[in-house]
Write a structure and sequence with these properties.
alpha/beta; 5-stranded mixed sheet; globular; two-stranded antiparallel ribbon
């Protein structure tokens, strides 16, 4: 019987290869989405079009788990910046979203649903 890790939802690339995309001057600010808007973007996108930053060690895992859910729209980043980053032979530019942080199991039921 094959068991699957329930915490792995998307294809993954090592955090060290994509960490600069969050702070790079070549990443347009409009392409970075956080918190509830990031969760909504993930819900609207097929899981095979999403790649996540994966920890390469315990410290990186703690860092990723403590950061707010952040999504980067990869189509807004120049191909020259994404060149050389791939996930098992699939270039990262073929994905739509890059996820940082911990993806919640369920939607956050905040007061905005009553507005």
């Amino acid at each position: 019987m094959h068991s699957r890790n329930s915490h792995i939802r998307y294809d993954a690339v090592p955090y060290g290869e994509v960490s600069d995309l969050r702070t790079s001057g070549q990443t347009p600010s409009f392409s970075i989405i956080r918190h509830e808007a990031a969760f909504d973007a993930l819900q609207r996108t097929d899981s095979d079009e999403i790649v996540a930053a994966a920890p390469s060690g315990m410290a990186t895992g703690v860092h990723l788990a403590s950061m707010p859910l952040t999504v980067i729209r990869l189509e807004a980043i120049p191909d020259a910046v994404l060149c050389g980053i791939d996930r098992e032979g699939r270039p990262i530019s073929e994905y739509k979203l890059l996820v940082f942080g911990q993806v919640p199991d369920r939607e956050n039921h905040s007061l905005r649903q009553f507005a």
